[in-house]
Amino acid sequence: MDPAAESVWGLRLPRVEDYAPLIGDAAVERLLAKAGRLRDRRVVHVNSTYYGGGVAELLSALTLLMNTSGIRTDWRVIQGRPDFFSITKKIHNALQGEAINLSSLKIRIYHEVLLENAARIPLDDSIVVVHDPQPLGLVALYRKTGPWIWRCHLDLSGPQPAPWTFLSQYIRRYDAAVFSLKEYGQDLPIPQFFFMPAINPFSATNRPMTDADIDRRLAHYRIPTDLPLVVQVSRFDRWKDPAGVVRAFRLARREVDATLVLVGNVATDDPEGQGIFEAMLGCQEERIIVLSCQDTALVNALQRRAAVVLQKSRREGFGLTVAEAMWKGTPVIGGNVGGIRHQIRDGRNGFLVDTVEQAAARIVQVLKDPALRRRMGDAAHRTVRRRFLLPRYLEQYLDLFGAFEVRFSVKPLRTSLISGRGRPGPGTRTCPPPAACPSPPDCPGPRR
Ligand code: UDP
Asked: What predicted TM-score, i.e. pTM, was given to this entire model?
């Protein structure tokens, strides 16, 4: 990109320096120094969708911040037929604990589509970060010229053994794996790192909105504001338990009056979403609104205006929607699972629930107590400011990238050129060394 490009339309991309009022000057300087040390490296992130879901949201923010910090960062998305994404969604479900049948036909389709993608996507001379199971197997199709990192965003608290064994033949070819929580760590022969995602406070989903803007957005979708809003924002996915949200809301409405808005989208890599959305349409009534759209300003408006936000997930690697609502000072009632447990401190900055009945009771409690809402909302905002803003996430990636040292060596020489009687001379090696070796502080030891 032309360095003067930003002035063409008078726009400006977010920079680490913009975070100074939130994280302090010292943190900004530290981050820029770390980024400066990686200036000559190139990073490519690979995932399976440009929009819909947390990974796309994260990559959209992270890849820009990495570029404006001076690290050349690319984002490539694999393409696939619907049957491919139906298989990868099954694998996703299996990693979150659901039994599946991974037939040889499905494995063949998985391999075929990845091979087609490998032919189109150049990944040379880069640090390659592959996100989630969809593009995982790509690692088998490239000659590595830099470190490959597998970043898994799923709730791995109880993966199904057979699909995990299938995937681990690829995972072990990576140079490191990153999971959101320590408890997702697996028995693997590669170093594992643990860091939780974070949000971009300057994105259309999170930036400040005036009351008038919020009113306009809600009016556009004919969302009534005469009663308090109870909101869940989520891809239409069984793991997010939208049916449980409706049941909890109906129970709560026996004691308090409110409007429920379920807003969601359907990601291109999730073929189950449309069916779930259609099933949820059957739950609509005057005070239960179900919307499918791709409108980040609406998400922002709802998370701001809601009296309470729900994220009643049954599995959740980390809930971006939880952090987004908390950032806006809105109390969140979250499923007591996965990453949400590390985002919400029960009773302090939100509530954790295990059942529909508990969710209903908390909805009633929060709606009846404006002082509690304010107190929890303030605590929630402070939590996100301290722990879940993008610079912390960027820094953990920079530390990880910086922990790979580049090793240079002479290529193996043809025998006729080797001194003596065919034995390698000084500085020669008989096989190519690994392109890179991780040696971070918590690396469990030499690789493999
Ligand atoms: N999202 C959105 N529109 C919707 C539903 C979700 O923009 O209708 C966004 C939401 O704001 C969040 C992301 O999609 O940034 C969902 O991330 P999360 O980690 O909560 O869940 P995932 O979809 O990754 O399981």
From this structure: 0.90
